[in-house]
Write a structure and sequence with these properties.
single chain; mainly alpha; Multidrug-efflux Transporter Regulator, Chain: A, Domain 2; DNA-binding transcription factor activity; MerR_fam; DNA-binding; MerR family transcriptional regulator; DNA binding
């Protein structure tokens, strides 16, 4: 990940507080997602000023970037990302680069009696769409 200063091309000091709109635009994450992540990740606590307006510190922005990487690029669930970020045994950098658990190959279900029922359901759905 590149440093946070290169995310913002606005002439502000790299340590400046950023609004939720600025963070949203720079990271490509919608504001409602950022607000939801604040609820889901207790360690993400931007400062608030009068009127409840959120201001993200550089540390908050770095955390949002780590959450984004875990959830949107590596495929972690929110629960898994929360666990990876709060892990005492494993630093966040290692948690982010941890390999994904192996996915099992899909297997064929042996239920030939269901095939006619499933085909009938499929045909009814198709005819409902055509109607």
């Amino acid at each position: 990940m590149s440093d946070d200063a290169s995310l913002f091309d606005d002439g502000k000091d790299p340590e400046a507080l950023r609004t939720i709109g600025e963070v949203s635009k720079a990271l490509g994450i919608k504001p409602h997602v950022l607000r939801y992540w604040e609820e889901q990740f207790p360690m993400l606590k931007p400062t608030t000023r009068a009127g409840g307006r959120r201001y993200y510190r550089p540390a908050d922005i770095a955390l949002v970037r780590r959450i984004d990487d875990l959830v949107n690029r590596q495929g972690y669930t929110l629960k898994g990302a929360r666990k990876a970020l709060s892990s005492k045994d494993q630093p966040v950098g290692e948690a982010i680069s941890a390999p994904h658990p192996q996915q099992r190959e899909p297997r064929e279900i042996e239920a030939p009696a269901l095939v006619p029922q499933l085909r009938a359901i499929r045909d009814r759905l198709a005819s409902a769409l055509d109607a």
